[in-house]
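Journal club side-thread
Mid-discussion, someone asked how the predicted structure for our own chain would compare to the paper's figures. Pasting it here so we can look after the session.
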Amino acid sequence: MLNRNSLAFGASIGALLPLAFYLLFQEVVLVERNGLQVPLFDQPTSLVLALAVNILPFSRLMKNERYEQTGKGILLSTFLYAAVFVFLKFFKEI
């Protein structure tokens, strides 16, 4: 089992949490009167919001000095996701 204060544990939290929220944001729809289901958020907005979810555990863990490595792992995952998003946004036109 992973140590609670390890870079790997933080990276796994930082990778899985935005993924779960992205899937959740894709399921949230705004129903219009004519029966068509329109997504509440478009894809780039869903990606950014899902990535922003990492702020909550990161700020909570960095306040506690015992879990500094876990916070760094979350930050590492966030930067990797952000780099992928920027690449997709500007070079692949998502």
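Post-session note: The chain has a mean pLDDT of 87.
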